Structures are given as C-alpha cells and as structure tokens.
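How a chain folds remains the central question behind the approach discussed here. In the encoding step, the backbone of a single protein was reduced to a row of integers, each denoting a local shape. We regard such an encoding as a compact summary of how the chain folds. The sequence in question and its structure tokens are set out directly beneath this paragraph:

___
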Amino acid sequence: MPLPNHPFQIANSLAKARLGGRTPLKVTHLLTYACNVECGFCTRIHIPSETMEPHQVLAMMDSFARLGTRWWVFNGGEPTLVKPLGQYIERARSLEFHATMVTNGTGVAARIDELKRLDLVICSIHGPRDTHDRTLGREGAFDEAMRGVRMLRDEGVEVCLLCVLNERNRDLLDAMLCLGEELGVGVAFQPVVETQLGGAQVPLDLVPRQTAMTDAVNWLLEQKMADRPVSCSRAYLEALMDSWPNRPFGANCWAGRLFCEVTPEGFVVPCCSEEEYTFARCHGPTVGWERAFLALPDRSECRSCWFKGPQEINLLLSMQPSHLKRAATNAARGRLLWD
C-alpha cells in the first residue's frame, strides 16, 4: 500500500496535534444506515436518518480537504447501495485522498468500474460460507462477496477482510486465515461490542466470554508470529486480551482531534462509538464543516471501545518506540501500518 500524498503535511498535522491543535486527517463518512443484510451484531442499521444531497457531500469533501484531511473512508450501512458513490470516489481521487470503503461485498461486482478507483476495500466476512450467510441472513452472500473481492484484486485494489469475532465464529479463525491466504489478503479481527446504538442491543450470547477471548487472541498472536495474514497489530491484540471484557485500552484517544466520523445527515461525531451524540453545533451543512469539527468535545480520556480502526490509530500515536518501528517497517514494505 503506497503512502498517502503530502507526507510532510501529515507530519506537520501530527506535530500540531501534539501541541493541542486539531486536524481531521482521517474522516469516515457514513453514507447511509441502510443495508441489504442484517448481521445479528450490527445495530447501526436500526437508526432512522436522512441523508445529505450529493452537492452537500461533495462540498463537505472539499471543505475537509482544505482542513488537511488525507484519508477518506466510505462506510455505512452498505455504501454500494448509494447511487452517487462513484461520483464521491472520483472526488476523493481528485482531492488526492487515500480512499477506503467498508462493505459486505454483495454489491461490489455490479459496481466494479467505479470501485476499482479505490485504494483499499475492507470487506466484512464472518466465517466460511454457511456461517457467513447465516450471520448475514442472506443465502449466497459469501459467494457474492468472494466474487467481488477477486474482481477488486484483479483490478489492483488492496483488500482486507474484516471478521467480527463473536461466540458463533471464534472456533473458525483458522478457516478465516486460510481464506485470506487463498485470496492473498490480510484478515483483521475485532470483537463484537455491546451497544444500544439505534435503540437495539447486541444479543449477549454473541459476546465472547473472557476465557474464550483470551484463548482466541493468544492463538491469533501465535499465527501472526508464524507470518500468517493477521492484519492486526500485536499491540492491539495484546491490549484486547489484557482488557476484555472490562473498559478497554490505556492509550489516549485522538477522536475529534485527528479523526472523526460524519453521519448520513451531516453531523460530525468523534468516532464510531459515539454516533448517537449528535449536537446542533456539530451539524456541518448548517454551521460549516470546520466549525462542526472544532466543536467536538475532548475525548482524549475516553475508554469506551474495542473498535479496531480508531484503536490502531490511538496505539500508533502513543509514540511508543515498538509501535513506531513496526509502522515504519510495514510502510517500507508497502504493507498496512498495523499488519
């Protein structure tokens, strides 16, 4: 994976953040909460919301580019359900963003001509065919996703599989790594997280118990040392093992200072753990995107989630020598920083 454009600008933004400044280096845009499947552990799709008009989305992207954004993530719901997605990808390219999409993969093949312009696609796969289809409640979802993944790989797009670790698939981790090896892609793991986002709650029987989580993470660490495609940093896995199921991680959180999310209707929120905290002062279409971002609260002491994306960033920015050395080595090899 090539480094993003403007590395000196990124370094300057990181230095400024250390002195108390804010730059939205990474923005995750939740294009929609709508989805064509219903995973048993996803509560996001139960949130009713409006969506921004295409001209508002494009103006938002331009505004964040002026604020120093370099990474842009299209997420949902399911982003391939959004008709103007291709238009947004083209704008991301013109702004020289490193463009990522998170998807269940079922709509990739139909839109490959647009999606091949992405830098990275994270495809949610939660086990072998039968387990995955049962988890999503859609027969054929696994085969549809695999077809899309192979098409993306043929187009030269970086792909990573994301497996949400839960009680129904924790015995299938080897099968997931075998799939990653077959496809030539990394496999990231993060635990299912209890939440009432959108008024729904994750069933408790899906949440791994402490002993089960410890065993699973220990095994993943062993496989990572054996050079299998575990696309999680050792630091993340060790922090997960040490903290589960209590409040996680000791690293300060940079949500709202170096990364943020934008909800479908245009509220800027710190991260994926706080999508329900929508305040009028953070509504970008109304107050402007810079004001909305700068109005975010200080979340540096937050210890509320195990989500892999933000926690990998937080661990990397803790500036511990071992984390920095790992990131530099991976960058030199053209790999994801947290591999």
In short: The chain has one domain: 7-332.
